Amino acid sequence: MENEKKYITTEELQKHNNREDLWISIQGKVYNVTDWANEHPGGDIPLMNLAGQDVTDAFLAYHPGTAWKYLDRFFTGYHLEDFHVTEVSRDYRRLANEFAKQGLFEKKQHVASCALTSVALMFGVVLYGVLCCESIWAHLGSAALLGFLWIQSAYVGHDSGHYQVMTSRRYNKIAQLLSGNCLTGISIAWWKWTHNAHHLAVNSLDYDPDLQHMPVFAVSTRFFNSITSVFYGRQLTFDPVARFFVSYQHWTFYPVMCVARVNLYLQTFLLLFSKRKIPDRALNIVGILVFWTWFPLIVSCLPNWPERVLFVLTSFAVTAIQHIQFCLNHFAANVYLGPPSGNDWFEKQTGGTLDIACSSWMDWFHGGLQFQLEHHCFLVCLGAN
Q1: 241-260 mean pLDDT
Q2: Mind giving me the DSSP string for 116-157?
Q3: What pLDDT is attached to residue 361?
Q4: Where is the Cytochrome b5 heme-binding domain (predicted)?
Q5: Region for 275 from its dihedrals, namely left if φ exceeds 0, alpha if ψ lies in -120 to 50, beta otherwise
Q6: At a CB cut-off of 8 Å and minimum separation 6, what does 256 contact?
Q7: Where do the DSSP E strands lie in 144-263?
Q8: Cα–Cα distance between 339 and 18 in angstroms, integer?
């Protein structure tokens, strides 16, 4: 009798859906992660958004195979009485298993190391162009290369923020802070906070922060009803200012993309100096200070203010390529209102994500993220594969 399984229904599981009582189910086994939510490497928001639900597909997509061994300590002893797997989920899990057998989920540390090396070489060329050349064209070329450096560095930060791409967690954190905070000026803590929420609730108008660009852009007419952002905890008001900007967004989109980094810098400062609990806050602030030391110094070495302004605008404008790429991945896909659901997680991911067609020899340029659908459904499958 002691080995007899205990069961609860899906309806009973759904009652454990708040921060003080947070249960989830994975492959029919029920886990209590209430006390551990704050320690979750992906933050507590993904757990809260799927609380009281079966999260098998999401767990499979977002975690390496080594994560399964840690589940037992959260097991409640209960199994789902009415647990079942849809045909779509069964096919998805079969495909994930096939990818694992092919070694597509295996780490390749040399990829990140090579990327960081190339970024370092580009940084050296930028310094040479600014400090050792007098031609304005050399300076503008250095600015363009700096923008491209930021794009490639962001891919390293992206990958290391999702999974361990270095030989140890310590080196992985160094890669995150170096490629994110120190080189691009964008906090890896801010990126993790918003990006993990985006992955789980992709293209949910009220849960996905990557779609919430009011008052400048509206990706859906539903924003005209002044919906509330669950992520930011405030209303996205469609007021006269928003109406004005949105009316001209078809003209302003590309110019805004050219200076979009300014908003990312602002969001970084707002988060790091907020009252929100931030992992490694001090390290993130130090990394940002490193960026705001070397970048102004480089700009100040240019001979006059017109060149300095052109240098900054050119470097920012080049990064617009990356911003536009990410917009293409999602803005034209299906959107919805409401929280993500574990039962149709795969359908929501595929419906809210688009790939970008390009030649295979250009994969490196896009960091593998032109395969956005594959990235969302098989997160631990490295882009370099």
Answers
A1: 97
A2: HHHHHHHHHHHHHHHHH---HHHHHHHHHHHHHHHHHHHHHH
A3: 85
A4: 5-89
A5: alpha
A6: 216, 217
A7: 228-229, 234-235
A8: 14
**Tokens standing for residue 106:** 């295996």
User: For 20, which DSSP code?
Assistant: T
Q: How far apart are the first and last CA of the chain?
A: 49
Instruction: Identify residue 215 by its one-letter amino acid code.
Output: P
Peptide bond before residue 306 is cis, with ω within 30 degrees of 0:
no
Whether 313 has a pLDDT exceeding 60, the answer reads yes
Q: Give yes or no for residue 108 having a pLDDT over 70.
A: no
Cβ distance 202 to 61 under 8 Å? Answer: no
Domains belonging to the chain, first-starting first, are 6-84 (3.10.120.10), 109-377 (no CATH)
The residue ranges of DSSP E strands in the chain, in sequence order, are 6-8, 17-18, 21-26, 29-32, 75-80, 228-229, 234-235
Tokens of 48: 């809260």
Judge contact between 223 and 236, C-beta under 8 A: yes
* C-alpha to C-alpha distance for 91 and 171, rounded to whole angstroms: 36
Collapsed DSSP state (helix, strand, coil) of residue 248: coil
Q: Are strands 234-235 and 228-229 parallel, antiparallel or unpaired?
A: antiparallel
How are strands ordered across the β-sheet holding 29-32?
6-8, 75-80, 29-32, 21-26, 17-18
Nearest-angstrom CA–CA distance, 128 and 298: 11
From CA 104, how far away is CA 116, in angstroms rounded?
22
pLDDT tens digits along 119-129:
999 999 999 99
Calculate the average pLDDT of the chain. 92
